[in-house]
Amino acid sequence: METRVGSVAFVIVNMYFDIKRSVDECLEKMQAVLVHVSGTGTVFAIESNARSKTWHDVLTNKRCKKLEGFLIGNHLHIANEESCNTTFQTSRVASNIYLTIFNNSANKYLQG
């Protein structure tokens, strides 16, 4: 989905990182999206199935290390803030696996 804020094009991308697939496969798709939408303000809404204290979960799992490295390497930012609420909850588990991520082009508009 593309929209404009003034003269800047924004792209909003929804992704699901299947827990049954390698996180590398998901990151390859994310990289392809970044190449395709280069030059736009880009926002990702991702069900990452990756847990990390970086995005305010209570633990860090193996999947998150590669995702964290990818975000750093591509100058992407996590919008999630610390909260007493979690982004995912069932009767068995509560975690923060849903992430909102944005690039530098979107940063000045989202961080105001």
The CATH architecture category equals 4-Layer Sandwich
Strand order of the largest sheet: 1-2-3-7-4
Distance between the termini: 22 Å
Mean pLDDT: 85
How would you classify the helix and strand content by structural class? alpha+beta
What is the helical fraction, as a range of percent? 25-40%
Q: For this entry, what is the oligomeric state of its chains?
A: single chain
How many domains? The number is 1
- Give the C-level CATH assignment: Alpha Beta
User: What kind of sheet is the major sheet?
Assistant: 5 strands, mixed
* Alpha carbon gyration radius: 14 Å
Assess the beta-strand content as a share of residues. 25-35%
Number of helices: 3
Q: What ranges have pLDDT less than 50 throughout 5 or more consecutive residues?
A: none
C-alpha geometry: globular
* CATH fold-level label: Deoxyribonuclease I, Chain A
Structure commentary:
With 112 residues, this protein is of the alpha+beta class. The protein has a single domain, classed as Endonuclease/exonuclease/phosphatase (Deoxyribonuclease I, Chain A, 4-Layer Sandwich). Helices cover 29% and strands 28% of the residues. It has 3 helices and 7 strands. The strands form 2 sheets. It has a 5-stranded mixed sheet. The radius of gyration is 14 Å and the shape is globular. The two termini are 22 Å apart. The model has no long low-confidence stretch (mean pLDDT 85).
